[in-house]
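the two lines:
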Amino acid sequence: MRAALLALLLACAAACSPRDDGTLRLALNWKPEPEFGGLFEAERIGAFAKRGLTLERTGGPGAPVVQMVTAKQVAFGIASADEVVMARDRGSDVVAVFATYQTSPQGLMTHAARGLGSLAEVLGAKGTLAVEPGLPYVKFLEQRYGFGALTVVPYTYSITPFLSDPTLTQQVFVTAAPIAARRAGADPKVFLIADSGYDPYTAVVIAHGDTLRADAARVAAFVAALREGWQGYLADPGPANALMAPLNPEMDAEAFRLASEAQEPLIEVAGGAVGAMRPERWTTLARQLQELELVKEALPPERYFANPE
Amino acid sequence: MSRRVLPPLVTFVVGVLVLEAVIRALGVSPLILPTPSAVWSAATREAGPLLAALADTARAVLLGLALSATLGVAAAVALAASPWIQRAFYPYAIFFQIVPIVAIAPLLVIWFGYGQRAVVAAAAVVSVFPVIANTLAGLLSVDPNLSDLFRLHGASRAATLWKLRLPWALPYLLTGLRIAAGLAVIGAIVGEFVGGGGLGVVVLGAMRQQRTDLVFAAVGYASLLGLALFAAVGLASRLALRHWHASETDR
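prediction for all of em together
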């Protein structure tokens, strides 16, 4: 019985390759929010349609995006650069093709009243640190600064503990929790993880290596459409925000506006195309993950990413 | 002995071999489904941290189980005191069975703080209902002839409870505890997802780091804990009942 069930499961996993009705499926890793603004804008202005692409969004909070792309259940997914490096180390053939955030939006949020002035001070002070277990950057921070007097607890995707505990520091996306905390009456101060030297590309679009090789033209068209969407979104996030708002009732119009404002400097690149990646960044990241013993070896950067054209 | 150990052992070995062969034959990515041998090597290579986490979880499970046994029996005795009390309160006891622990676990952290107390509370909340339900069934199913005998001899309520009704309910309670033991492990791990510590945090961390082999290894350690508890309750049941109760004699 068990073997039969398993065979069924595996047969499905093997058969669930990309559908050949031409629809490209993209798995998100969170609810619609400004992080995906360029995608919604691209859909809104028909950037995919005019390149002959049909896109279907799927996934959401908690979706095993890297696994879905690895199994070719979806053509594209949203992940972060460190997830790509770790997945390749575990034998998966996923490749990054577009990086939304050129500077990682991950940060630590603490109460301004504590008067702490840097990441080192935050991590050296006595208090509680709420972070998702296993986050690579937490391991990096611990190795770099030490967690002397900190109690580390799991982050539960809620700012309630932060609001009720004046000595609690928590992980944040600078575009989300700090805005919510401020509007809930707190006075948060945020420190970007990127300032510590650990700065992976984030909200990265990933694809399977097979897709990239067999279907290079469509991947390039997809990336071009997405780029067009981001250029439009950065110029005016209003229309795409209005599209996303009904899909994410937890954020109101004001939260959308503030978040798209906050993320702009993390996305825009001086003198480069939105979403394009540089090999040095991947080299640094792979070396850092290797030093943290999260991957066995650092591969050449071109194994992790491509800038399809 | 061999007749009891052999069948599950054969299932296990055959299952593992088939799984290994199928995964290898299909070339499934280890990110999606690791082979049993990869899980085994993670389980042995990381045995130190896994055992430390297991001890953490085991402590919380035992405390949670002790709590639900105590509170569950007390609640059942109270409910059995009169049909009126039972009708008034029993529907609310069912709350504990249907409560989605994943949803209330973050609240437990807010009420009890991070750490072991929240984890113990989560283990107790999910495991208390089978104790209440089974013990109550036992208390209410006392042989009426024996009840009459106690009444004829003018036994006090306390004596009837202590010498007749609780012993009568004991086999029921032990059955409830067997169900509760497995649930307490689930409750503790979900509690650890938000309260911190133990195998729960190992599972979350391993998922975050794309270590599917380690996820399965941690789940394996958790099932060992569940099995050990199940066996311990079984042993307690045998020791307590073998001289007088049909369920454990002649075996």
